[in-house]
Design brief:
By secondary structure, the chain is α/β, with parallel strands linked by helices. The protein folds into two domains: about 150 residues, Aspartate Aminotransferase, domain 1; about 240 residues, Aspartate Aminotransferase, domain 2 (3-Layer(aba) Sandwich), CATH 3.40.640. About 40% of the residues lie in helices and about 15% in strands. The strands form five sheets. Strands 4-12-11-10-9-5-6 form a seven-stranded mixed sheet, sandwiched between helices. The site of pyridoxal-5'-phosphate has 13 residues, from helix 4.
Length: about 425
């Protein structure tokens, strides 16, 4: 079956909008995706019908608890664990990572070391750097290879030692689109006994994530990047979630996942995140005409999404060859699609990213200027203070939209 992009788009009201009499093109997915109707309906249904705090001995609270539990179950399927206690919800990836870094940081001692990377969003750098500073330990940074925008794997292996307590690395870069070989990096970290933390925020809307296959100790993502609401999700191995010295209130549960979910959660957002997973599963079901279980449906959907995105990327890069005024900061080798997601960063000699984004925005083409908080990369590449113009495709983008973007670039430049 061909990819049903038109019926997908019908489910996203935001994609029907016009700006200056032209249909909007959302190329701002790396900053946040649009959401399908069923996600908004799940959230309003929770708020209108089962809105309650947890664990009271009356029916509305019990129904609310059931919906929250279903959220853990959906995200467990999405991330590839069968243990729903390993799924923690929180305000966003950044807050969850700060909470985890404070807890893990308490276990570090003088002489310990940690490793972060130059290709990461700062949310996977600063929380660790600050916890390391508090504990008085050393932080290493895996350098980015500026010839092909990959992390230097040789340098990484040299940084690993018995002193390494943590490796924190991104699955995919939100600036260059590079996909890091995290499975191999996790295995190497485990050989020296280090804990691994994967930032999968940028990867989640593009490819299947399977924490069991990766064998990571922790992994975070954010539902607002994969067609859900503003809420963060953290997977952690049960043993570590149970044993690490988390900062928590006395009356809050010591069992999982409550041990890590401090304060009252956004139950409606948990329902929305579950609905986003079900939206993807439903797409997989449609494409495969009836695959039965949710995990297999998500597999099918993510496979199809990735193929569609490769098609968009190939078309985009082929047409961009017509334009030599833009410099692409990322992999452009058509034989290396597996190593990137469809996120493209550009600079132009005279027009700033801010100016390019402003002019494209007037044509209804929504792109993003700046450093995208991927500041270790923009600093290493000499791209501060203006950063890049970032164009990101998601599965609801079309070849026609890509053509409109390249045509507009041609007009502007
Ligand atoms: C790769 C990456 N990591 C982390 C974050 C931070 O996520 P959150 O906004 O959920 O804190 C972002 C947000 O853009 C991101 O793109």
């Amino acid at each position: 079956m061909s990819f049903p992009v038109e019926s997908i788009r019908e489910q996203f009201p935001a994609l029907q909008r016009q700006i200056n009499d032209r249909p909007v093109c959302h190329f701002d997915g790396p900053a946040g995706s649009q959401i399908p109707k069923q996600v908004a309906s799940a959230m309003s249904d929770y708020l209108l019908n089962t809105n309650s705090n947890r664990s009271a001995p009356f029916i509305v609270s019990q129904e609310s608890d059931e919906r929250v539990d279903a959220g853990h179950s959906a995200l467990a399927d999405f991330l590839g664990t069968t243990d729903t206690g390993e799924i923690v919800f929180g305000q966003n990836m950044t807050s969850l990572t700060f909470a985890l870094s404070r807890a893990i940081g308490k276990t570090w001692q003088s002489g310990d070391e940690i490793i972060v990377s130059q290709l990461d969003h700062d949310a996977n750098v600063s929380p660790w750097v600050q916890a390391a500073k508090d504990a008085g330990i050393v932080v290493h940074h895996i350098p980015v290879n500026l010839e092909d925008y990959t992390l230097d794997q040789i340098a990484y292996r040299k940084l690993l030692s018995k002193r390494t307590k943590l490796v924190a690395v991104g699955y995919a870069s939100n600036a260059t689109g590079t996909v890091n070989p995290v499975k191999e990096m996790i295995a190497a970290a485990h050989e020296v006994g280090a804990i691994t933390f994967i930032d999968a925020v940028h990867m989640a809307p593009h490819r299947r994530i399977d924490v069991t296959d990766l064998d990571c100790d922790f992994l975070c993502c954010s539902a607002y990047k994969f067609f859900g609401p503003h809420i963060g999700i953290m997977y952690g191995k049960r043993k570590l979630l149970e044993s690490l010295p988390v900062y928590k209130l006395r009356p809050s549960p010591n069992s999982l996942p409550g041990r890590w979910m401090s304060g009252t959660q956004s139950h409606e957002s948990i329902c929305g995140a579950a609905a986003a997973v079900d939206y993807l599963a439903n797409l997989g079901k449609t494409i495969s005409s009836g695959t039965a279980d949710r995990t297999s449906q998500i597999n099918v959907a993510m496979q199809a999404i990735s193929q569609h995105e490769i098609k968009l990327s190939k078309h985009f890069l082929n047409r961009l060859a017509e334009l030599d005024a833009l410099k692409l900061w990322g992999i452009n080798d058509p034989n290396r699609w597996e190593e990137r997601v469809p996120t493209f960063s550009f600079t132009h000699d005279s027009l700033s990213p801010q100016e390019l984004a402003r002019q494209l925005g007037e044509h209804g083409l929504l792109t993003w200027p700046g450093n995208h908080y991927a500041i270790p990369f923009t600093e290493a590449a000499g791209l501060e203070p203006e950063g890049t113009l970032r164009v990101g495709f998601l599965h609801y983008n079309t070849l026609e939209e890509v053509d409109r973007l390249v045509d507009s670039f041609q007009e502007l430049l």
